[in-house]
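Lecture notes, continued. The same structure-token format from the folding unit now serves as the input rather than the output. Read the line below as a description of shape only.
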């Protein structure tokens, strides 16, 4: 009976095989022509769809859509594919699977799906202290019931470890799953995240190549966009996310890819475009808290401070993420509201402690906070330990900045160069990273490089921080323009 039920579920596993949804092209620059064609095709489809569905006033449309899958089934499909699922659907799926494992405690697949659903719910709600331990228990129970040939549970454990920022564990589980089922495409996104967190960008790219060889579809394109962005291929990343959003199979998935597109637009300094993406994501999925925080970021850059504060508060009310609290605190501080900023910083510390109870590694966000608003020496200690365990680019940047804030500019420069040097994988064009490098160089009296890198930070994104972007402009004004070239002797 159990095998029959498992087989039925396996047959419903997602295979995003829409016509024309081919695997991403080989890495390279995406032409402007391709992007125009993509936009044109999307507009055409929308116009056609609107024409079909319109009816005369007082008449009912004759078009009838086929009923979609039940909420639990739809969430189950998304969870097993590793794509975002709507929170209400996740709640239904969790109720169904909890009932199932109570009645059939040896159903390994249901335990694995339940554990993966807990991971996704924890990621979407920031309730890691409760949901991540429940996820681990469910996934390990699945392995206990079926210790062999259980790639589903291993995938879930890899996703849980990535959510906890334990990239070594994620790599271990992901490699075990790949060894067990090399052609199981859902394992490779977890490997990409693990390799990226460990600073192994060559292996991350190889994992992406394996993924695109095995499968195509919106989830693959969205994953490719992240790798393209880390390599500095901005247009490739944006085009891949546009494809992903256009081909998404559910509103929650589409909203997630739109939110990521908004992030990329924001990091390029395109605040209006970023805001449009974030607003559309929230319209499609009101539970898309990352997009609500993104709205706060973009609105602050547009000078709409009251709206920005409201957007951040909405996001934090439902998903009290330490990263959102840090952003809101810095926005308050930039507005001179220091007491309100301290409230957010206290919330950040409390949330990091709570998430630590769920196994989440909060060293990076706490180190960033302590470097600028707390104890830089404490930030250095935390981030040194993090670097030894997980030497990714984000950690290199944060450690370099913490060393600078603690007064050790010579060592700080080495880490800032790692974070921005293409040789070490720092190909992503990041305004904060360039700002940190420029300020460290200024402290070392390297005025020429400092001027270039601070200028580059503001060129990439003139609004990258409500606190630090004005500092960059002020320091550049003090440094003055590039000195005139010396006249050559006759």
């Amino acid at each position: 009976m159990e095998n029959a039920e498992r087989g039925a579920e396996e047959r419903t596993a997602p295979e995003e095989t829409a016509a024309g949804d081919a695997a991403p092209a080989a890495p390279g620059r995406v032409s402007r022509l391709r992007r125009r064609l993509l936009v044109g095709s999307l507009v055409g489809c929308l116009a056609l769809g609107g024409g079909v569905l319109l009816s005369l006033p007082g008449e009912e449309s004759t078009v009838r859509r086929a009923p979609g899958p039940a909420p639990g089934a739809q969430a189950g499909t998304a969870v097993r594919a590793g794509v975002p699922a709507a929170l209400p659907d996740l709640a239904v799926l969790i109720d169904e699977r909890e009932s199932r494992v109570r009645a059939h405690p040896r159903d390994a697949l249901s335990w694995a799906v339940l554990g993966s659903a807990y991971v996704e719910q924890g990621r979407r709600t920031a309730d890691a202290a409760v949901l991540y331990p429940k996820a681990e228990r469910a996934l390990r129970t699945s392995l206990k019931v079926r210790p062999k040939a259980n790639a589903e549970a291993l995938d879930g454990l890899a996703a849980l470890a990535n959510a906890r920022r334990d990239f070594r564990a994620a790599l271990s589980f992901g490699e075990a799953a790949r060894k067990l089922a090399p052609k199981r495409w859902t394992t490779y996104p977890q490997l990409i995240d693990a390799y990226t967190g460990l600073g192994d960008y060559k292996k991350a790219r190889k994992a992406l190549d394996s993924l695109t060889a095995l499968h195509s579809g919106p989830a693959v394109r969205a994953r490719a966009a992240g790798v393209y962005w880390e390599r500095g291929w901005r247009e490739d990343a944006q085009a891949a996310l546009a494809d992903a959003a256009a081909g998404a199979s559910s509103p929650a998935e589409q909203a997630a890819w739109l939110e990521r597109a908004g992030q990329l637009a924001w990091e390029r300094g395109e605040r209006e475009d970023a805001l449009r993406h974030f607003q559309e994501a929230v319209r499609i999925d009101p539970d898309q808290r990352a997009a609500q925080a993104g709205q706060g970021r973009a609105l602050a850059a547009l000078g709409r401070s009251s709206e920005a504060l409201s957007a951040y508060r909405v996001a934090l009310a439902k998903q009290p993420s330490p990263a959102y609290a840090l952003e809101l605190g810095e926005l308050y501080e930039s507005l001179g509201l220091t007491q309100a900023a301290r409230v957010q910083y206290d919330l950040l510390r409390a949330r990091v402690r709570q998430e630590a109870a769920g196994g989440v590694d909060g060293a990076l966000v706490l180190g960033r906070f302590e470097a600028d608003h707390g104890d830089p020496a404490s930030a250095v200690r935390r981030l040194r330990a993090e670097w030894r365990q997980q030497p990714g680019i984000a950690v290199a940047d944060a450690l370099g900045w913490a060393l600078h804030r603690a007064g050790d500019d010579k060592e700080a420069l080495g880490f800032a160069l790692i974070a921005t040097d293409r040789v070490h994988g720092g190909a992503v064009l990041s305004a904060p990273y360039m700002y940190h490098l420029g300020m460290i160089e200024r402290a070392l009296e390297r005025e020429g490089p400092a001027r270039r890198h601070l200028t580059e930070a503001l060129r990439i994104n003139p609004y990258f921080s409500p606190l630090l972007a004005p500092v960059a402009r002020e320091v550049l004004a003090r440094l003055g323009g590039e000195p005139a070239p010396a006249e050559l002797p006759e």
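Point for the exam: The chain has four domains: 81-214, 216-308, 320-354, 375-480.
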